[in-house]
Write a sequence for this structure.
């Protein structure tokens, strides 16, 4: 029989957990017997997912509905966890948004919203929950970045830049925590078949495949991993072999048609 301490430490918080990659990750963690805290904006969809996970895996599932792009949302989540007496073993920062189009034609408020969610909430939640993990000498944080983090992406400028922040931030925190017993890693998916990515693209990965990479990354040691062999090769070429200006021009040609239809 598990002790209360063992049960408490096997709890995962997954943001953006209602659909896509986040939902697939919750399946994998529940399959390992972990209790879950699912976070997303859509409370009804979260609770539907929670009911299914409880029934199928027999785990405890909580569903605080929050929009993490709001300035006070990460601290509200941390307070909720404290009030509930929840000891977080794994944090998966998966919530994110994307936008396609020229910056000059963008809604400035939407650009800010995207950056706050993709970068700001990731940094704040990491800073809020990491100290307790370090104090216990165990825990894990997975930050979902993107292959877009490895090179500028015209017509997806804010998205790629926000994910570059996530990648750089995670690598730095990994170095800071290497000797603490806490695992910190960035996982970078490429094109994935989710509601956020409806464009037809060759080589799209399924959310379940990305979730498998996340589970594998939790067992690894390095600070970052790219999901999928083809994606890994492409990011290596763009970030290591090509000059930044060349990589940017290639990305511009690739994304222009999708953004402008020409």
């Amino acid at each position: 029989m598990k002790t209360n301490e063992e049960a408490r430490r096997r709890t995962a918080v997954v943001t953006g957990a209602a659909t896509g990659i986040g939902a697939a990750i919750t399946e994998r963690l529940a399959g390992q017997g972990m209790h879950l805290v699912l976070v997303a904006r859509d409370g009804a969809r979260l609770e539907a997912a929670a009911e299914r996970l409880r029934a199928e895996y027999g785990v405890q599932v909580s569903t605080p509905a929050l929009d993490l792009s709001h300035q006070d949302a990460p601290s509200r989540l941390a307070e909720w966890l404290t009030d509930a007496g929840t000891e977080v073993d794994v944090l998966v920062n998966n919530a994110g948004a994307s936008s396609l189009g020229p910056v000059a034609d963008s809604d400035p408020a939407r650009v800010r919203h995207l950056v706050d969610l993709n970068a700001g909430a990731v940094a704040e939640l990491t800073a809020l929950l990491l100290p307790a993990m370090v104090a216990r000498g165990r825990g894990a944080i997975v930050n979902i970045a993107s292959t877009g983090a490895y090179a500028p992406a015209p017509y997806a400028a804010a998205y790629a830049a926000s994910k570059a922040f996530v990648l750089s931030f995670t690598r730095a925190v990994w170095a800071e925590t290497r000797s603490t017993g806490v695992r910190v890693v960035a996982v970078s998916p490429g094109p994935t078949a989710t509601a956020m990515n409806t464009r037809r693209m060759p080589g799209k990965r399924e959310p379940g495949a990305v979730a498998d990479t996340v589970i594998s990354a939790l067992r690894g040691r390095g600070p970052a991993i790219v999901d999928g062999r083809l994606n890994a090769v492409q990011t290596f070429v763009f970030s290591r072999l090509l000059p930044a200006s060349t990589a940017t021009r290639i990305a511009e040609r690739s994304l222009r048609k999708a953004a402008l239809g020409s």
Q: What stands out?
A: Confidence is low (pLDDT under 50) at residues 1-9.
